[in-house]
What we know:
- There is one protein chain.
- α5 (88-103) links the parallel β3 (79-82) and β4.
- It is built from seven helices and four strands, in the order ααβαβαβαβαα.
- Strands 2-1-3-4 form a four-stranded parallel β-sheet, with helices on both faces.
- The chain has helices spanning 6-15, 26-38, 47-55, 68-74, 88-103, 111-116, 127-133; strands at residues 42-44, 61-63, 79-82, 107-109.
- The chain has one domain (6-141): 3-Layer(aba) Sandwich (Dna Topoisomerase Vi A Subunit, Chain: A, domain 2), CATH 3.40.1360.
- 48% of the residues lie in helices and 9% in strands.
- By secondary structure, it is of the alpha/beta class.
Amino acid sequence: xxxxxxxxxxxxxxxxxxxxxxxxxxxxxxxxxxxxxxxxxxxxxxxxxxxxxxxxxxxxxxxxxxxxxxxxxxxxxxxxxxxxxxxxxxxxxxxxxxxxxxxxxxxxxxxxxxxxxxxxxxxxxxxxxxxxxxxxxxxxxxx
Length: 143
């Protein structure tokens, strides 16, 4: 898979709902969660990712719990978010999922994932802990 050019990457960052070079704020996170709740499906890698997003109040989560093609076949919506980890395997999975979903006519919203590259978060399962540690959310917000 070809790596996007710097120009493409900068373009993606400019389209983000908040400035990726400043720390994530409560308002930023509220915008992202609203956007994720509006997505008919959020694809994640595994059960720990599902638990982390459930803690944040998100329920429309589809884990990769079988062959990739089986997960892609289960997605019968026009738009989804792909929140795979930001490590090399997650990047590979993201590329495969995005290509196949787009081939099936599904728009893949990956702006939050792109934004997360500017945070210390590298695994989706650690997102809730990061948000709590950064005091973006409080324990009473977690489910």
